[in-house]
Design brief:
2 domains; mainly alpha; Tetracycline Repressor, domain 2; 0% strand; DNA-binding; homodimer; Arc Repressor Mutant, subunit A; globular
Chain lengths: 213, 213
DNA sequence: TTATGAAGTAACTAGTTAGTGCGTTAATCG
DNA sequence: CGATTAACGCACTAACTAGTTACTTCATAA
């Protein structure tokens, strides 16, 4: 086999990755409609022609960005390894993780918003999304069942409703932070405001799920 | 593209209203960036020039649409007259109203999303938004205080956190219904799914706020 | 009856945008 | 080495888009 590969002048995979990363930023900043192909190319330090070469078109590129964003968060969730923790700690870990992930990856939220404006047109075409999604939902289902079996969670809670609620209380706060700052006349992104919110969210979910909060 | 029947006579106020209504639909459908001024004019059965005549430009029109959308929901909330109800009933009424309003006025959600993509640039310029917002926040604050005084609500709950949570659990479900349908592999807009969700949301808030849920 | 200004219109401008044709250059391999 | 393939870049276009210009039509007050 070959030894250390020489640094290449031309590197298809590296160019592809630069385009994908640049596209993620631009789509997150301006949405699918507002993003400019020329700007993506410039940010990627690539020629616009390469976008069409590697991805086909603007919408195909958007789909690729979305798929990566979804598999990234689903992969990170699996790494939490909730099975090793007692149910209550596992649930708190999940709520805190979801909040932290949205906070550190704000482009995920904007991409999902943009995709919903387009009625999930691109996600519908994806092969990989249903697979990673099922694994995620069953992870929470397993946790819920375990908590009920151990007598610490209320029985009968639907895992989808819980998932949606855990996402909602973090997602909404962050995606609407600009209008929220005006409506509630507060800096919602101040350090203490963020801490207050995650504590409030954990409390909300614990009271919803646990028998003795 | 549906159009509104054109009145035979000249009517400045009617034309303005037609433009505003058409703009609301187009901005909700495509966002600020995706909406087309020509399409708004066509839908309103007005000449494009009239948009510039009455509103100044595309962004000013967007601001006018936003202001109307916010004052509409805030007005509807005030009409609930929560003071006439016992605290628990008042709280449930508020949660159900918020859900129903988002469900019946989906354009509100899309407009707010679009405005947040633009970092509340237009809402910041508004004179009327802070006024109606304060009235709304204090309405919930009053309810919370009353519930605590009557010994049915937990003390120490922040009215802004509660407001955000009540909005979040409805808003997120509805705004992300397209991607949600794929991730959770369900028809989130089926009649029974909607009923299940509003019940779940009321339960979530009651457990969060009430001393004996 | 008519002068006046607001309501309304069509065609246009200047700039932008996604997508492409085609030539060039580097890597790979017999 | 020479030839083939894939990566890359320039310069272009056809379609689109916010905003404007120059004009006509109509209601009404004097």
């Amino acid at each position: 086999m070959q030894t250390t590969p020489k640094p290449k002048q031309r590197d298809a995979e590296a160019t592809r990755k630069r385009i994908l990363a640049a596209a993620k930023k631009e789509f997150a900043k301006s949405g699918l409609g507002g993003a400019r192909v020329d700007d993506i190319a410039e940010r990627a330090n690539a020629n616009k022609r390469m976008i069409y070469h590697y991805f086909g078109g603007k919408e195909d590129l958007f789909q690729a960005v979305l798929e990566e964003a979804y598999t990234d968060i689903r992969t990170a969730e699996q790494k939490l390894d909730l099975d090793r923790l007692p149910p209550r700690e596992a649930l708190e870990t999940l709520v805190r993780f979801t909040w932290d992930y949205y906070l550190k990856n704000p482009e995920f939220i904007t991409l999902v918003n943009s995709e919903n404006l387009h009625r999930a047109k691109h996600l519908k075409k994806s092969e990989v999304i249903p697979v990673v999604s099922r694994r995620f939902v069953s992870m929470v289902k397993t946790l819920l069942d375990r908590g009920v079996a151990e007598g610490v969670f209320r029985p009968g809670i639907d895992e989808t409703q819980l998932n949606i609620t855990i996402a909602a209380i973090g997602y909404y706060y962050l995606t609407n932070r600009y209008t929220g700052a005006i409506v509630y006349d507060r800096d919602l992104m101040a350090k203490d405001a963020l801490e207050q919110r995650v504590d409030f969210n954990i409390d909300t979910v614990m009271r919803l799920v646990c028998l003795e909060p």
